[in-house]
């Protein structure tokens, strides 16, 4: 017999109606309680149902939401790029994993309350929680594929709906919900849940291990250097770093402890040097190609990082460059094509002064070169990102003309993608690359070509990226998250 969920009564947990809060901490406590009640309900009902007969009702639980309403046109101090709404109206966002986002939510809600002098309302939303997202791994349960159970899962539980899991808010302009209500945050709960699940899949570490400062690389050597650095920090009781985490959620706190490598590494192995308040550094080996770069940043974006830096290898395009020289990107030529539908290629991707200064200072700190002497090892200019690794094997006249017209000094396959997604998601970004070959000048990437200078520079490169992140960490939040990345009408939440 075929069962239709339209004929079944809906059974939901008993939740209180909206409550108003003047305290950000109390508001997040209530969000947490609502979310926990809903998730525990779904887990309990799923456990009862998965091995049983078709139930007599449909089970549904809802995400909690934050709702904020103001009728005032009073001018708000807008020196900060976030923490306030632009005009009168009602603003709302659904919330997932308030335990994971607790510090972020307290920070953003407190700014909203303080800037407007008004409370926020916390209560259940009208958006169901897909049962898949209620099973975050801690429950020990997983949702089977469709067809495994005796009845269709979607007849009894809500499942992920891609029609409402999208980037319409970050991609749009003045994006309203159907009833005229405006978004309070850049991502909805189901969009965040989708990415949290993808992070665990692609990177084999749980989202709670991710730090606010994320380094991306395309070279395994940097992973090895990162582990060496991490162990040095764990051996230093004054470093402030508390743990090192690798794929498979392997955690070490002792500098001498072994780190067991999983038998099968994920597509993009990720490592975390943790610090209190998520102020440490995450390193993602995204491998080669703009598709991986987009995939990684699409999902890490929901964690609201404070900075993304690309520290990888590139092709040097100028005869004056040497293998091992550094390239600091101050512009990007986008021929990666993976973001064209989300961010038109005519959109400028500007350099961010705060990040540029941190990177240049980091190069000086690590190499002990300053001023004019830095020009011996570092060039600043346009970085081109292309989607064809073997572009040299085709007719070069077209690509070389564009590279010359754009004043490109380096070419890779990831940097512009990461910068463009940083721009799109309002995450500060930067790029410092290391020249590993010069294809236009006969120095192809072949075994045995690395000089002592090149090896030294590669060893320094990761340390420069780490040093830059440390400098960025010392900046006030409002300085690094400046108005340069904000559009005409923005969400109040960062």
Task: List the defining traits of the structure above.
494 residues, alpha/beta, amp nucleosidase, domain 1, Rossmann fold, 5-stranded mixed β-sheet, 31% helix, 20% strand, globular, disordered N terminus
Secondary structure tally: strands: 18
Beta-strand percentage range: 15-25%
Order of helices and strands: EEHEEEHEHHEHEHEEEEHEEEHEHEHEHH
> Radius of gyration, rounded?
24 Å
How far is the first residue's CA from the last residue's CA? 50 Å
- Gross morphology: globular
Task: Give the overall pLDDT as a whole number.
Answer: 89
CATH architecture of the largest domain: 3-Layer(aba) Sandwich
Q: Given the structure, what is the number of helices? A: 12
CATH topology annotation of the largest domain:
Rossmann fold
Portion of residues within helices: 25-40%
- Which CATH first-tier class of the largest domain would you pick? Alpha Beta
Strand order of the largest sheet: 2-6-4-5-7
């Amino acid at each position: 017999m075929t069962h239709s969920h339209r004929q079944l009564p809906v059974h939901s947990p008993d939740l209180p109606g909206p409550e108003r809060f003047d305290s950000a901490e109390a508001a997040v406590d209530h969000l947490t309680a609502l979310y926990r009640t809903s998730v525990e309900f779904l887990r309990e009902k799923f456990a009862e149902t998965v091995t049983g007969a078709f139930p007599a009702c449909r089970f549904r639980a809802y995400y909690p939401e934050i709702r904020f309403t103001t009728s005032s046109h009073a001018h708000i101090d807008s020196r900060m790029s976030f923490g306030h709404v632009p005009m009168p109206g009602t603003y709302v966002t659904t919330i997932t994993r308030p335990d994971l986002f607790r510090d972020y939510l307290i920070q953003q809600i407190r700014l909203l309350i303080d800037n407007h002098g008004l409370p926020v309302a916390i209560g259940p939303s009208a958006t169901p929680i897909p049962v898949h997202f209620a099973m975050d791994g801690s429950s020990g349960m997983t949702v089977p594929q469709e067809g495994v159970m005796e009845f269709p899962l979607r007849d009894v539980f809500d499942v992920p709906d891609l029609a409402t899991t999208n980037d319409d808010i970050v991609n749009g302009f003045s994006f309203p919900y159907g009833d005229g209500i405006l978004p309070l945050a850049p991502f909805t709960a189901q969009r965040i849940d989708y990415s949290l699940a993808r992070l665990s899949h692609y990177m084999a570490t749980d989202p709670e291990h991710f730090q606010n400062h994320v380094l991306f690389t395309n070279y395994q050597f940097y992973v090895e250097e990162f582990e060496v650095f991490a162990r040095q920090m764990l051996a230093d009781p004054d470093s402030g770093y508390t743990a090192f985490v690798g794929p498979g959620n392997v955690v070490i706190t002792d500098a001498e402890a072994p780190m067991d490598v999983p038998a099968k590494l994920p597509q993009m192995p990720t490592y975390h040097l943790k610090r209190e308040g998520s102020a440490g550094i995450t390193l993602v080996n995204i491998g080669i190609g703009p598709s991986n770069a987009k995939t990684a940043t699409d999902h890490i974006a929901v964690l609201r990082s404070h900075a993304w830096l690309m520290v990888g290898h590139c092709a040097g395009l100028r005869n004056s460059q040497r293998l091992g020289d550094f390239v600091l990107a101050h512009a990007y030529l986008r021929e990666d094509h993976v973001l064209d539908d989300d961010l038109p290629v005519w959109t400028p991707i500007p350099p961010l002064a705060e990040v540029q200064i941190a990177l240049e200072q980091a190069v000086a700190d690590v190499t002990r070169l300053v001023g004019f002497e830095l020009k011996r090892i570092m060039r600043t200019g346009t970085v081109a990102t292309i989607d064809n690794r073997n572009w040299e094997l085709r007719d070069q006249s077209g690509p070389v003309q564009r590279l010359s017209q754009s004043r490109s000094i380096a070419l890779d396959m990831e940097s512009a993608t990461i910068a463009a997604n940083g721009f799109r998601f309002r995450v500060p970004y930067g790029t410092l690359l290391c020249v590993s070959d010069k294809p236009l000048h006969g120095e192809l990437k072949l075994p045995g070509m690395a000089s002592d200078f090149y090896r030294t520079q590669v060893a320094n490169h990761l340390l420069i990226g780490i040093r830059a992140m440390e400098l960025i960490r010392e900046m006030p939040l409002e300085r690094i998250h400046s108005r340069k990345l904000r559009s005409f009408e923005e969400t109040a939440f960062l």
